[in-house]
């Protein structure tokens, strides 16, 4: 079996042991482990990185625990506007979608755009029309309904306040993503989100913007971001990491640390990212209190972590 690597995230923000019950922590870690296993099986069998990241993200979209797909938060108008993107590091082909309402798995639509259209980025009703032509699965509004998400939205829906994910006290950036290197050394990245609670004016964040929240290039790395999208857009975070590696010769860890722990922090950007390079090295830096994350490298043990104090475990020789 050749070498492969995969890393996933389920969002970042103020996530501490004090804000989590043991039962809820187990649910999050189980969901991360399940998604990681789905991608791992594909890669271990010699499958493509692009397939691995898509199916891993679909697993995260299918649980209400994360702000993507089924777990997407409510908009100002009580709807669910979802964004997603996927990119192939070998060909630099990409597919992205923004502002879709009823697609069961937005990352699947992004993949269809990559595979079956001459475009990179679609949005709204046009994207949904394309999804119908591709026979992708739709879901009724009740599929996306979650009582907790509805309660959170109800508390702010009559105001101009928007929240990054759950409640102001929880201060989380809800996004899911995956990056992978397959046994042929090809890279891929995928990211999906439900955006911000009570967002208005069809707001779009960094997730579906190639180079901002999602990027993959075999010559450098694959990146999936999670954080306050406006800052990640302005910093062009994903491509910036790639550029530091390709043009300045920084290692994956050095480039990620420079962007996440220095550049973003200097102008108030909070969040993190997951990354993998062409040698299978993984980096998962974040400048927030926590980030739902997991990774697996070939035949080494899988690592699942949430809190900042678990960073040493992720950066250990196990990788």
TrEMBL record:
InterPro entries: Ntn_hydrolases_N, Peptidase_T2. GO terms for biological process: proteolysis. The keyword Transferase does not apply. One of its GO terms (molecular function) is peptidase activity. The keyword Hydrolase applies. Substrate binds at residues 203-206, 226-229. The active site is at 175 (nucleophile). Keywords: Autocatalytic cleavage, Hydrolase, Protease. Gene3D superfamilies: (Glycosyl)asparaginase. The record marks 174-175 as: Cleavage. This is Isoaspartyl peptidase. It comes from Pontibacter fetidus.
